[in-house]
Design brief:
heterodimer, A: 288 residues, mainly alpha, two-stranded antiparallel ribbon, 12 helices, 74% helix, B: 419 residues, alpha/beta, Rossmann fold, 7-stranded mixed β-sheet, 5-stranded parallel β-sheet, 14 helices
């Protein structure tokens, strides 16, 4: 029971960390290496709104998510749009923006370990004899809701369908009148908003430290590589594989190897199926 | 023409005035502080040093050769606590302090053990006296001095090390064994050299004292979930959770411990739990946690008459209590240096070394004396005999000194769910 409960929790935490990265890549083909920075920046914005501006919790969260989306959209409009299509430049550009944001936060005073966001609900309960806190239960429920909403959005909403169209075949979608840059802006905005949502849900478990920005990016990349770059379904499946593998490793092998699991999974994936579990990059498959 | 002459005369007067003024002011004694300033053990050391310098300068400065010379601090960011930053970066920063900033003495860091150990050769090369005050907990530092005294005699350390800290923590645990009947411990440490060594040493020491050490879990840096270990500890009846971690994610562990209401009390070296803001940051979930702050005075206590005087002065200048390890020791190092310079009546390294070796002042956390062979500050459980540790417990949102008994301000309390 313990493995089941904490395996699911860990998996959903990983998928929340990586969903925004996967979404942006699948639609705009931009590997957003500023994803971790957006995660920590939105968490810090919410903290500022609560603790410095004195706003109540819910408006702070909503404003924080809006700010994250706006940063993502502006980032695309003024920086990424100019280098779109040049893959190396995209990687360097987004990584540089991420570095500037993270180190800017450090320079601006986000130092130490005393910054945190409050939990939605404090306290814990027992499920099947296993103790679990309410915040983790909220994470599980919200995570599942986000999966469902994203699924519905990309199938029954005009903008969502446009995003899917671009993701499937950009040229064909453009011929049908879908604006590629606009969808990329929307994807960056949604992806950044998802990074912000992950921050609001996950940061109350610990504290807001700039190093988290790097950790989130590493996990997001690991999950997406294993699941298959550009595949949302793959991202969720990979999150569950790594999430459960980590819990099982700690339980039956050693806690010492928990972080190695994700890295090992990347190596195995690259050896066996380099495009990832649900990846569709035929060039990679053919090379192997 | 007349106006021009008057202007020229005024300018000449101003110029001469400043020339005379600058010649009459004594040149400052430069303290170089190589610190990882983005991290607690760096910025709190910087604040401690600056406070001491300000106090000394306000009092007239350092008496040397019948004159008073002020201290001047040059801080440089070594970045050595940042992940992935090479040791060479810290060494370059240190050399810059010595060569460019003309530091007469080095106080503070480098803060990471590997960087500090590597810096010893540089200090020896430039014959610069250094007092290490923060971050470096390895006993190897002072063992290296004892191993080659002639080469490394320039290096001193006025803060504790793992060897001493483990002994003190074992004593505290033995006291708790007597008071509460505890005999089962569960060790959880971070996967870094000092923490693993600390965990192993504690496991050995507790086993020798008749404790049952249920398990020792090693967590990689960045671990974000501790449920498996905590549930295991709870199931197997651990009464003590011994922790040794300096990663921010240890806050997750403590929140999980509190939410699970485990019948065990966390004790150890937990960087995330040192700062005054920790209690608020964990929404009170850090209550009852026992933390080793390495030296007394890093939280309010009444170790010596100077302790609260220092705490109050720090609060007045920086707007908050001393935050953690590295604060009181960095503050005291400046006073130890002042004492040595005044006794030596010189800033020459060889005479300062002798003066520091013979120094004996009552400081913020007890009597400050260096061992003549190792240059390690002499520790004690009695402030009249040596430097005293600062082991605190979070009680009602405050850091209360609970060990050593001679200077404790309160007893160890158990969470209500453990009674």
């Amino acid at each position: 029971m313990e493995i089941l409960i904490y395996g699911i929790t860990n998996s959903i935490i990983l998928s929340l960390m990586s969903l925004g990265f996967a979404l942006v890549y699948s639609i705009s083909r931009v590997p957003n290496f500023a994803h971790g920075a957006l995660y920590i920046t939105s968490g810090y914005i919410v903290w500022l709104l609560i603790n410095k501006a004195g706003l109540p919790y819910l408006p702070s969260v909503l404003l924080g998510l809006a700010a994250a989306s706006l940063i993502g959209a502006l980032m695309y409009r003024f920086i990424i749009m100019r280098i779109r299509g040049m893959e190396i430049s995209e990687i360097i550009g987004t990584y540089a923006i991420g570095l500037a944001m993270i180190e800017g936060l450090r320079w601006g005073g986000l130092r130490g370990m005393t910054y945190t966001l409050p939990a939605f609900v404090s306290g814990s309960t027992e499920i099947g004899g296993v103790s679990i806190d309410y915040q983790r239960i909220i994470i599980i429920i919200t995570g599942i809701l986000i999966f469902i909403l994203l699924f519905l959005f990309t199938r029954y909403n005009r903008i969502g369908l446009a995003l899917r169209g671009i993701a499937q075949d950009e040229r064909a979608a453009m011929m049908l009148g879908i604006d590629s840059d606009m969808t990329a802006i929307i994807s960056l905005a949604i992806g950044s908003g998802l990074a912000g949502l992950a921050a609001v849900l996950l940061l109350p478990l610990g504290n807001i430290v700039v190093e988290q920005g790097y950790n989130v990016l590493i996990f997001a990349v690991a999950v997406c590589v294993i699941g298959g770059l550009g595949s949302w379904g793959g991202t969720i499946v990979a999150s569950f594989i790594i999430g459960f593998a980590q819990i099982l490793t700690e339980k039956y092998i050693s806690s010492h190897f928990v972080m190695v699991v994700a890295l090992l999974a990347i190596v195995v994936t690259l050896l066996i199926k380099p495009s990832g579990i649900f990846g569709k990059q035929k060039q990679l498959e053919e090379r192997v | 023409m007349r106006r021009a002459l008057v202007s020229l005369a005024v300018l000449l007067f101003v110029f001469l005035f400043f020339c005379v003024a600058s010649h009459s002011a004594e040149p400052p004694i430069v303290i170089g502080a190589p610190l990882s300033t983005a991290f607690l053990y760096g910025w709190d050391a910087e604040r401690g040093i600056k406070l001491a310098v300000e106090e000394i300068n306000t009092g007239g400065g350092v008496s040397i050769g019948g004159k008073k010379r002020p201290f001047k601090v040059e801080v440089i960011d070594t970045r050595d606590l940042e992940p992935g930053v090479p040791v060479s970066e810290a060494l370059m920063a240190l050399e810059k302090l010595i060569l460019e900033k003309k530091a007469d003495f080095i106080v503070g860091g480098p803060v990471r053990s590997e960087a500090a150990m590597a810096a010893m050769d540089l200090l020896s090369k430039h014959k610069k006296v250094s007092i290490l005050t923060s971050g470096v907990l390895t006993p190897a530092y002072t063992a290296k001095i004892a191993g080659n005294y002639e080469k490394y005699k320039y290096c001193f350390r006025n803060t504790s090390h793992v060897g001493v800290m483990m002994g003190e923590l074992v004593m505290l645990l033995e006291d708790m064994k007597k008071s509460f009947g505890f005999n089962k411990a569960y060790i959880m440490v971070q996967d870094v050299a000092h923490a693993r060594a600390g965990g192993e040493a504690m496991k050995k020491a507790l086993t020798e004292k008749g404790w049952t050490v249920i398990d020792m879990k090693i967590y990689p840096t960045g671990t974000g979930d501790y449920s498996v270990g905590l549930l295991d500890a709870g199931r197997k009846g651990a009464q003590i959770l011994f922790l040794w971690m300096d990663m921010p994610e240890s806050a997750i562990l403590l929140k999980q411990w509190s939410d699970m209401k485990l019948k065990s009390i966390p004790i150890g070296f937990v960087n995330a739990a040192e700062q005054p803001g920790f209690f608020k940051a964990t929404e009170g979930k850090g209550e009852y946690l026992i933390v080793d702050l390495v030296n007394g005075g890093n939280a309010p206590s009444k170790i010596t008459p100077w302790t609260m005087k220092f705490v109050d002065a720090y609060k007045k200048k920086w707007g908050l209590e001393p935050e953690g390890y590295g604060t009181s020791s960095s503050y005291m190092a400046v006073y130890q240096l002042k004492d040595a310079i005044e006794k030596a009546n010189s800033t020459d390294s060889s005479t300062i070394i002798t003066a520091l070796e013979n120094g004996d002042i009552m400081g913020v956390y007890g009597r400050m004396r260096f061992d003549k062979k190792t240059h390690q500050v002499i520790p004690s459980l009695d402030p009249k005999e040596g430097a005293v540790t600062g082991i605190i417990q979070w009680q009602k949102g405050k850091r209360v000194q609970v060990f050593p008994p001679k200077v404790s301000d309160g007893k160890v309390l158990l969470p209500p769910w453990m009674k």
